[in-house]
Model the fold of this input.
Amino acid sequence: MSSWMKFNLMNSASPIMEQLIMFHDHTMIIILFITISVMMMMSLLLTNKFSSRNILENQILESLWTMIPAIMLMFIALPSLKILYIMEELINPSITVKIMGHQWYWTYEYSDKKNIEIESYMLNKPKKNEFRLLEVSNRMILPFMTQTRLIVSSSDVIHSWTIQSLGVKMDAIPGRLNQSSIMLNKPGVFFGQCSEICGMNHSFMPISLESINMKSFIKWMKTNN
Done:
Protein backbone atom coordinates (compact mmCIF):
# COMPACT_ATOMS: atom_id res chain seq x y z
CA MET A 1 0.00 0.00 0.00
CA SER A 2 2.77 2.44 0.89
CA SER A 3 4.57 1.84 -2.42
CA TRP A 4 1.40 2.58 -4.41
CA MET A 5 0.90 5.80 -2.46
CA LYS A 6 4.19 7.09 -3.85
CA PHE A 7 2.55 7.40 -7.28
CA ASN A 8 0.07 10.00 -5.98
CA LEU A 9 0.53 13.72 -5.44
CA MET A 10 1.26 15.13 -1.99
CA ASN A 11 -1.66 15.57 0.35
CA SER A 12 -3.10 19.04 -0.08
CA ALA A 13 -2.91 21.64 2.67
CA SER A 14 -4.71 24.47 0.86
CA PRO A 15 -7.83 24.89 -1.30
CA ILE A 16 -5.67 25.74 -4.32
CA MET A 17 -3.81 22.43 -4.10
CA GLU A 18 -7.12 20.58 -3.77
CA GLN A 19 -8.28 22.17 -7.02
CA LEU A 20 -4.97 21.31 -8.73
CA ILE A 21 -5.27 17.66 -7.67
CA MET A 22 -8.86 17.51 -8.95
CA PHE A 23 -7.74 19.07 -12.25
CA HIS A 24 -4.91 16.52 -12.50
CA ASP A 25 -7.33 13.61 -12.02
CA HIS A 26 -9.80 15.14 -14.50
CA THR A 27 -7.09 15.56 -17.14
CA MET A 28 -5.72 12.05 -16.58
CA ILE A 29 -9.17 10.56 -17.29
CA ILE A 30 -9.27 12.40 -20.63
CA ILE A 31 -5.71 11.32 -21.47
CA LEU A 32 -6.57 7.72 -20.59
CA PHE A 33 -9.59 7.83 -22.92
CA ILE A 34 -7.44 9.25 -25.74
CA THR A 35 -4.73 6.62 -25.20
CA ILE A 36 -7.21 3.73 -25.27
CA SER A 37 -8.90 5.12 -28.40
CA VAL A 38 -5.61 5.51 -30.28
CA MET A 39 -4.48 2.01 -29.27
CA MET A 40 -7.76 0.52 -30.49
CA MET A 41 -7.49 2.37 -33.81
CA MET A 42 -3.90 1.24 -34.28
CA SER A 43 -4.83 -2.38 -33.56
CA LEU A 44 -7.69 -2.17 -36.10
CA LEU A 45 -5.35 -0.67 -38.69
CA LEU A 46 -2.86 -3.48 -38.16
CA THR A 47 -5.63 -6.03 -38.76
CA ASN A 48 -6.87 -4.17 -41.87
CA LYS A 49 -10.25 -3.36 -40.34
CA PHE A 50 -10.08 0.20 -41.76
CA SER A 51 -9.51 -0.85 -45.38
CA SER A 52 -13.15 -0.30 -46.35
CA ARG A 53 -13.74 2.46 -48.91
CA ASN A 54 -16.85 3.60 -47.02
CA ILE A 55 -14.73 4.32 -43.94
CA LEU A 56 -11.79 5.92 -45.77
CA GLU A 57 -14.04 8.33 -47.68
CA ASN A 58 -16.62 9.04 -44.99
CA GLN A 59 -17.07 12.81 -44.56
CA ILE A 60 -19.04 12.47 -41.31
CA LEU A 61 -16.26 10.39 -39.75
CA GLU A 62 -13.63 12.96 -40.78
CA SER A 63 -15.74 15.72 -39.22
CA LEU A 64 -16.10 13.77 -36.00
CA TRP A 65 -12.41 13.08 -35.50
CA THR A 66 -11.76 16.79 -36.11
CA MET A 67 -14.43 18.04 -33.71
CA ILE A 68 -13.93 15.56 -30.85
CA PRO A 69 -10.29 16.65 -30.10
CA ALA A 70 -11.42 20.30 -30.07
CA ILE A 71 -14.20 19.45 -27.60
CA MET A 72 -11.72 17.55 -25.41
CA LEU A 73 -9.41 20.57 -25.37
CA MET A 74 -12.31 22.70 -24.16
CA PHE A 75 -12.93 20.25 -21.29
CA ILE A 76 -9.26 20.70 -20.31
CA ALA A 77 -9.00 24.47 -20.90
CA LEU A 78 -12.04 25.64 -18.95
CA PRO A 79 -11.07 24.09 -15.55
CA SER A 80 -7.49 25.23 -16.12
CA LEU A 81 -8.55 28.86 -16.67
CA LYS A 82 -10.76 28.72 -13.58
CA ILE A 83 -7.85 27.57 -11.39
CA LEU A 84 -5.53 30.22 -12.87
CA TYR A 85 -8.10 32.89 -12.04
CA ILE A 86 -8.52 31.59 -8.47
CA MET A 87 -4.74 31.52 -7.91
CA GLU A 88 -4.42 35.18 -8.94
CA GLU A 89 -7.43 36.39 -6.93
CA LEU A 90 -6.82 38.25 -3.66
CA ILE A 91 -9.90 38.89 -1.50
CA ASN A 92 -9.26 40.96 1.64
CA PRO A 93 -6.05 39.29 2.90
CA SER A 94 -5.71 39.41 6.69
CA ILE A 95 -1.91 39.02 6.76
CA THR A 96 0.82 40.18 4.41
CA VAL A 97 4.27 38.57 4.45
CA LYS A 98 7.18 39.82 2.36
CA ILE A 99 9.53 37.00 1.33
CA MET A 100 13.04 37.89 0.20
CA GLY A 101 15.43 35.41 -1.37
CA HIS A 102 19.15 35.67 -0.67
CA GLN A 103 22.17 33.52 -1.46
CA TRP A 104 21.31 31.10 0.13
CA TYR A 105 18.61 31.72 2.71
CA TRP A 106 15.18 33.35 3.05
CA THR A 107 13.95 36.30 5.07
CA TYR A 108 10.30 36.78 6.10
CA GLU A 109 8.97 40.22 7.00
CA TYR A 110 5.67 40.73 8.83
CA SER A 111 4.80 44.42 8.59
CA ASP A 112 1.01 44.59 9.06
CA LYS A 113 0.93 45.46 12.75
CA LYS A 114 4.53 45.13 13.91
CA ASN A 115 7.72 45.13 11.91
CA ILE A 116 9.02 41.58 12.42
CA GLU A 117 11.79 40.20 10.22
CA ILE A 118 13.25 36.71 10.60
CA GLU A 119 16.04 34.95 8.74
CA SER A 120 15.69 31.31 7.78
CA TYR A 121 18.88 29.28 7.23
CA MET A 122 19.21 25.56 6.69
CA LEU A 123 20.36 23.66 9.78
CA ASN A 124 23.72 21.97 9.24
CA LYS A 125 23.20 19.56 12.15
CA PRO A 126 19.50 18.74 12.57
CA LYS A 127 18.30 17.00 15.72
CA LYS A 128 17.33 13.35 15.92
CA ASN A 129 13.67 13.79 14.92
CA GLU A 130 14.28 16.52 12.31
CA PHE A 131 14.58 16.14 8.55
CA ARG A 132 18.00 16.49 6.97
CA LEU A 133 18.31 19.30 4.38
CA LEU A 134 14.78 20.51 5.18
CA GLU A 135 14.93 21.90 8.72
CA VAL A 136 15.64 25.61 9.10
CA SER A 137 16.71 27.90 11.93
CA ASN A 138 13.46 29.92 11.87
CA ARG A 139 10.26 28.65 10.30
CA MET A 140 7.76 30.88 8.58
CA ILE A 141 4.73 31.01 10.91
CA LEU A 142 1.18 31.49 9.60
CA PRO A 143 -2.29 30.87 11.03
CA PHE A 144 -4.54 28.38 9.27
CA MET A 145 -7.97 29.28 7.84
CA THR A 146 -6.70 32.82 7.23
CA GLN A 147 -6.22 34.52 3.85
CA THR A 148 -2.55 35.48 3.50
CA ARG A 149 -0.88 37.60 0.85
CA LEU A 150 2.70 36.79 -0.13
CA ILE A 151 4.97 39.40 -1.70
CA VAL A 152 8.04 37.69 -3.12
CA SER A 153 11.27 39.30 -4.31
CA SER A 154 15.04 38.76 -4.27
CA SER A 155 18.10 40.74 -3.29
CA ASP A 156 20.63 39.11 -5.63
CA VAL A 157 19.69 36.40 -8.17
CA ILE A 158 16.45 34.71 -9.24
CA HIS A 159 15.01 32.31 -6.67
CA SER A 160 11.68 30.48 -6.51
CA TRP A 161 9.63 30.11 -3.33
CA THR A 162 7.87 26.76 -3.63
CA ILE A 163 5.84 24.54 -1.31
CA GLN A 164 4.29 21.63 -3.19
CA SER A 165 1.57 20.72 -0.69
CA LEU A 166 0.23 24.30 -0.82
CA GLY A 167 0.26 24.56 -4.60
CA VAL A 168 2.49 27.66 -4.46
CA LYS A 169 5.43 28.36 -6.75
CA MET A 170 6.40 32.01 -7.08
CA ASP A 171 9.60 33.36 -8.62
CA ALA A 172 11.67 35.81 -6.57
CA ILE A 173 13.17 38.26 -9.07
CA PRO A 174 15.53 41.15 -8.13
CA GLY A 175 13.84 44.53 -8.51
CA ARG A 176 10.37 43.04 -8.96
CA LEU A 177 7.56 42.29 -6.49
CA ASN A 178 5.53 39.19 -7.32
CA GLN A 179 2.32 38.53 -5.47
CA SER A 180 0.51 35.36 -4.51
CA SER A 181 -1.98 34.22 -1.89
CA ILE A 182 -2.43 31.13 0.25
CA MET A 183 -4.90 29.90 2.81
CA LEU A 184 -3.86 26.95 4.93
CA ASN A 185 -6.71 24.60 5.82
CA LYS A 186 -5.02 22.60 8.58
CA PRO A 187 -2.21 22.86 11.14
CA GLY A 188 1.17 21.28 10.55
CA VAL A 189 4.65 21.82 9.16
CA PHE A 190 5.09 21.98 5.39
CA PHE A 191 8.40 21.83 3.56
CA GLY A 192 9.61 23.13 0.23
CA GLN A 193 12.78 24.21 -1.53
CA CYS A 194 14.01 26.86 -3.91
CA SER A 195 12.96 25.66 -7.37
CA GLU A 196 15.25 27.92 -9.39
CA ILE A 197 18.93 27.11 -9.95
CA CYS A 198 20.32 30.07 -8.01
CA GLY A 199 23.97 29.15 -7.61
CA MET A 200 26.38 26.88 -5.81
CA ASN A 201 24.23 26.23 -2.70
CA HIS A 202 20.88 26.09 -4.51
CA SER A 203 20.12 22.63 -3.09
CA PHE A 204 20.71 23.90 0.49
CA MET A 205 17.98 26.55 0.50
CA PRO A 206 14.95 24.84 2.07
CA ILE A 207 11.61 26.36 3.04
CA SER A 208 9.74 25.43 6.21
CA LEU A 209 6.27 26.78 7.00
CA GLU A 210 4.47 26.07 10.25
CA SER A 211 0.69 26.41 10.39
CA ILE A 212 -0.80 27.21 13.81
CA ASN A 213 -4.08 28.59 15.16
CA MET A 214 -4.74 32.32 15.35
CA LYS A 215 -4.37 32.51 19.14
CA SER A 216 -0.91 30.94 19.00
CA PHE A 217 0.03 33.17 16.06
CA ILE A 218 -0.87 36.34 17.97
CA LYS A 219 1.17 35.08 20.93
CA TRP A 220 4.11 34.38 18.61
CA MET A 221 3.85 37.90 17.18
CA LYS A 222 4.00 39.40 20.67
CA THR A 223 7.04 37.34 21.67
CA ASN A 224 8.91 38.37 18.51
CA ASN A 225 8.22 42.07 18.92
Q: What stands out?
A: The beta strands are 95-102, 105-110, 116-120, 140-143, 148-154, 159-163, 168-172, 178-182, 188-193, 206-212.
